[in-house]
Amino acid sequence: MFVTDKRWQVEVCAGPNDDWIDEAGQQRFLSTAWKLSSKSDRGGFRLEGPEWTFTERAYNKPPEHGSDPANIVDHGYPLGAINLAGQTPIILVNDWPDGGGFINPYTVPTCAFWKLGQSKPGETYQFVQLSVEDAQAEARRITALCAESSIE
Predict the structure, then answer these.
(1) What's the pTM value of the predicted model, to 2 decimals?
(2) CA 14 – CA 67 distance, rounded (Å)
(3) What Rg do the C-alpha atoms of the chain give, in angstroms?
(4) How many CB atoms are closer than 10 A to CB 99?
(5) Sorting pLDDT into bands at 50, 70 and 90, what band is 136?
(6) pLDDT exceeds 80 at position 152
(7) What is d(CA 46, CA 40) in angstroms, rounded to the nearest whole number?
(8) CATH classification (class only), 7-151
(9) Which one of 14, 31, 97, 103 is least enclosed by Cβ atoms within 10 Å?
(10) For the chain, what are the domain ranges?
């Protein structure tokens, strides 16, 4: 469903680094209307919103993880990861970096990517958490709907 009020409901799955964000930070993420920044591009959709808060794990970590609570030892980034570069969440899209040293507390699953492709800077995202299984089921539903429409 296309929106007309510039507000998108976008699905997310927890992880891979959701355990670095405290409960208050996770609730704030899911209850905030995040504004899509004009500084977005085909590699990342930058979001504007409140500051994040972290678990103890993000502060009491070995020095190789870096000094910022959002820093972690380099690891791979999934497409759709919400990459937390300091306090700026960036949804990694199309030409995203495939790895680095920032945490990714949530990931936008492929079933919600069509919404990202339709949105414009200045519009807002309200994130809704799904399980991986529910995101996969939604992707199958959308694929079947598109296949059915192409036959007609």
Answers:
(1) 0.89
(2) 24
(3) 16
(4) 10
(5) very high
(6) no
(7) 5
(8) mainly beta
(9) 31
(10) 7-151
Token reading at 129: 């958490």
- Tokens found for residue 36: 């899509």
pLDDT for res 52 = 95
Q: How confident is the model at residue 146 (pLDDT cuts 50, 70, 90)?
A: confident
d(CA 88, CA 12): 17
Instruction: Give the pLDDT of residue 42.
Output: 87
DSSP string, the chain: ---SSSEEEEEEEE-SSGGGB-HHHHHHHHHSEEEEPTT--SSEEEEE-PPP-B-HHHHS--GGG-SSTTEEEEEE--TTEEEEETTEEEEE-SS--SEEEEEEEEE--GGGHHHHHH--TT-EEEEEE--HHHHHHHHHHHHHHHHHHHH-
